[in-house]
Amino acid sequence: MVKILLKRGRENAKGREHIILQKKLAEAMPLSTLSGRPVHIIYGTAWKKERTAELVRSAVKAGFRAIDTACQPKHYDEAQVGVALEQLLQEPQNGGAIRREDIFVQTKFTSVDGQDPARVPYDRKASLPDQVRQSMARSLANLRVDFVDSLVLHGPMRTLDENRLVWRTFEELHAAGKTKRIGLSNCYDLRLLRTLYDEAHIRPAVLQNRFHAETGHDRDIRAFCTQNGIVYQSFWTLNFQFYAKFVWVFLAKLNYVWKFWTANPHALHSTVIRDIAKKRGITPEQLFYRFTIDIGITPLSGTTNTAHMAHDVLVPDMPPLSAEEIGQIESILYYGQGKKS
C-alpha cells in the first residue's frame, strides 16, 4: 500500500508539472479561426441526421465558432452543415454579420472501411490518393466553402504505407490551399503518431480521440501532443453520459459494454465534482469541460439541447481551475477515487 501511495504521489507531482506545461501551450497555440478568434470548444455534428442544419444554426447562434463534421454519410450529414453555414453567413446576427473567417470548419476523410458500402462518397475503386482528393472535393461542395480550416484522417489505415500515402495526399491538399491544417483522429498508437510526425513535411496540427478510461485518457499521447504543439481534441467527453444513465439498468451485467459506450461514467456523479461545481456556481458539465480545457484539451460538445449549448460556450471564459481542483478531478478519472452522490 505504501509503495502504491508513493507511486501515485510521484505520478501526481509529474502531473502537476505537466498541467503547467499544458496550460502554457494551450494559451500559446490554440486553434483559431482565420479572424483570430481562439477555438477552445467545438460543436460536433455526428448522428444529428435530419436535424443537422437546425442544430448547427442553433450552436453558432449560441456562440460556437467551430464545427466538426466528416465526409461519412453513415454518421454525418455534411451537406446539411453546409446548408446551415450558408444560411448563417447570409443572415445578420446579434453583434454583426458572421463571416466565413469567423467559423472554424473541420472535416474528415474516412476510409472505405469506415463507410456505409451503399453510400461511399467517392469512387471506392480509385487509388487511395484519388479517394482522398475526391472526398475533399465532396466535402468542399457539401460545405459550400473554398477551404476547410482542418482536414483530419478519421481513423488510421490498415498499413503504415497506406497511412503515409494518405498523409502525403493531405500535404498536397494543404499546399493547394484546400485546408489550413491536417491531423488525425482515433489514433491510440503512439508509435504511429510519432512515425507520421517524424516523417511528415506538414506535421499534424490536430489529434482528435475519445477521452475515456479505456484508453487511460490518452495520457502518454497527450504528453506527446503537448511537447510537439499538436492540439488534442476530445470527443465522447460527456455526450454518452446521459444515454448511459438510461441504459445502465439493462447493461449492468455487461460492464464492458458500459465502459465502451461511456466516456467517464462516474465523473459527473462524484461528490467532488458536484461540490467544486456548486462552489463555483456552475454545472458539473461546465466544470468538466473547464477541466479539459485547463489540461490542454479542446473538447467537442455534441449536445442537441439549446440550453446546454448556451452553457457550453461560456466555459472558455470561466476562471481556470486551481491545481488542487485539477488534482481532485484527475484522481476521480485516473484512479476511480471520489464517491458518487
From TrEMBL:
<feature type="domain" description="NADP-dependent oxidoreductase">
    <location>
        <begin position="47"/>
        <end position="332"/>
    </location>
</feature>
<dbReference type="GO" id="GO:0016491">
    <property type="term" value="F:oxidoreductase activity"/>
</dbReference>
<dbReference type="Pfam" id="PF00248">
    <property type="entry name" value="Aldo_ket_red"/>
</dbReference>
<dbReference type="InterPro" id="IPR023210">
    <property type="entry name" value="NADP_OxRdtase_dom"/>
</dbReference>
<dbReference type="InterPro" id="IPR020471">
    <property type="entry name" value="AKR"/>
</dbReference>
<dbReference type="InterPro" id="IPR036812">
    <property type="entry name" value="NAD(P)_OxRdtase_dom_sf"/>
</dbReference>
<protein>
    <submittedName>
        <fullName>NADP-dependent oxidoreductase domain-containing protein</fullName>
    </submittedName>
</protein>
